[in-house]
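I'd like us to work through together how a protein chain folds, taking it slowly. To get us started, please write out a protein record for me. Go ahead whenever you are ready, and we will take it from there:
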Amino acid sequence: MAKPLLGLPVADALTEELAHEVAEMAERGITPTLAIVRVGERDDDLSYERGALKRCEKVGVAVRQFVLPADCSQDELMAVIDEVNSDASIHGCLMFRPLPKTLDEAAACAALDPAKDVDCITEGSLYGVFANRPIGFAPCTAEACIEVLDHYGYDLTGARVTVVGRSLVIGKPVSMMLQARNATVTMCHTRTRDLAAECAKAEILVVAAGHIGTVGANAVAPGQVVIDVGINWDESAGKLCGDVLYDDVEPIVGAITPVPRGVGSVTTAVLAKHVIEAARRQAA
């Protein structure tokens, strides 16, 4: 049986560490503060927001919520982003996406100050990830993958890692972050020829394709570490599942993140970490 790489112990350890940092910053009169910008009442946005609020409360990060109706105008949204940018007491901003189709999402993302972009929605943050420079921040879920591997003691230096997925949210940034940690990374996607064979070569397999069943038993090897980033709803089973066929893969590999209770459990802790780092950078 594979070792389950549960996210909660990772998040709890990170939360404890961050709470100490916030306490030290409070002694200097600094309260790391997150702005949450939400348009409408999407269930997935509300669920993540609740989790973020709970995690920030545990850590000691203050939160200011900016909620707009789903039928708000572009000018109203841009005014909120401008307010966030100009308020020195706000250190980080989480803006939920996708925005309603009536809004120009690209313009809204571009308007946010990269220094306050704690979930990599600006081109400045993406440049920071790809250039390995402290400009903006990596996507929280991508960094959560690294936090899981670090917490469970997997050495990335020289490791053969295959990433399945090429989005700017997970696949591409996590590939760059792994390379920055001296891993040897192969990037694949759902149209890769003989994807299963490419996956089976890896020591660490990160799957972020966004499709149920992307990786099955024929795509893994004994002893592999599998990080399943996918979050899908399986209609037939009536439950959440990842991109990996967990029941087929788990008896073969050495370790695997479950879905749920895996990588997703770590993202809000990484969000809080980014807000604290943004406050630290501003103070410096």
Summary: The two ends are 48 Å apart (CA to CA). Residues 224 and 253 are 5 Å apart (CA to CA). The mean pLDDT is 97.
